[in-house]
């Protein structure tokens, strides 16, 4: 029989004794766990016959191993247990094959090579023999798999170590994405394909190429000036035009000027281009966008939470990767504890006064992993009363489309608020704020930049409609 189906056999039982007897029926052996007996007991008068049906339902899992499985049906009399009777049978399970493959991680990065891992699970009920190959559409990647051939028992898995090398090294420029596919090949069966992305980074950043060019140009210009410039020196002492400067020195015998006569001073011309320096040019009428948007209370996105104090200069910025199916977003009203989550930035114990004249604004820097369909939404979750462990309000902003060039992009509240859910804003009394990112479309995770010191660029910050309590 096929796993997942049902098969029924009939047991016929006759009471050959002179007593009214009750018989208990059970199935022993491997197939006993898949068997169901109806009825499990038969009460027969002397000389009468009864029947029971035994239904086998082996599951479509690796537990139902393909091949023969002997079993026994035990019939035990209640009045005379010593008269126990056993009949034997044989159940043959047909084989089926089911293979699942997974690439970990989906996206790997490297300048010269990358080492992904490849997991192959045998979910069938017979031994799996397969070979593994890798390919990419452009033919620019080299693949090495160890081992390249596997034999996996039912219900077990095999790990394969991969090694990807690019065809050429990128010395300068942007990162390049190379989609590739790993195949699980079996005889007479369509291969199982698993796709991944190899992101090849440049050995040197592009700005270094411009810096080196500027340095070479400066050195050439200095060399030319050194060999072509001839300095000209002259002295006005030869033509008697030298004029003494400083305070005059009185010598013995010199006549001092009368008290009512002031010493004469030589007039001097104003310096060339004289006059005071002009004041600096005033700024234009345009207004620049403040950090975190035009909101009220500024917070910086640190490594784990919104924080009112910026990171110290010299700290390293952090990059968080948010999976395609971001877990941990509860519904309004669900229990919501103040615990760390790899997909949330959460701050607890907030005591602030609601300011209805402002709104939630933000400056976040996000990027994709080369997926042309990637988009992301930011979610603000609020709990106003620290005594309640409930999610009371949610703000979800519209999706922000990400470019596949894997460059950082600025995501602000200007995309618009998609919807809100829950209670209206109120004062924070030991409350909580959680910022989460939701991958709205695409098949690869997105990255968010955080913990950026103020002396650097692309600072992740937000403002909330609250005034801090002094």
Automatic annotation (TrEMBL):
<keyword id="KW-0812">Transmembrane</keyword>
<feature type="transmembrane region" description="Helical">
    <location>
        <begin position="207"/>
        <end position="229"/>
    </location>
</feature>
<keyword id="KW-0472">Membrane</keyword>
<protein>
    <submittedName>
        <fullName>Hydrogenase expression protein</fullName>
    </submittedName>
</protein>
<feature type="region of interest" description="Disordered">
    <location>
        <begin position="244"/>
        <end position="295"/>
    </location>
</feature>
<keyword id="KW-1133">Transmembrane helix</keyword>
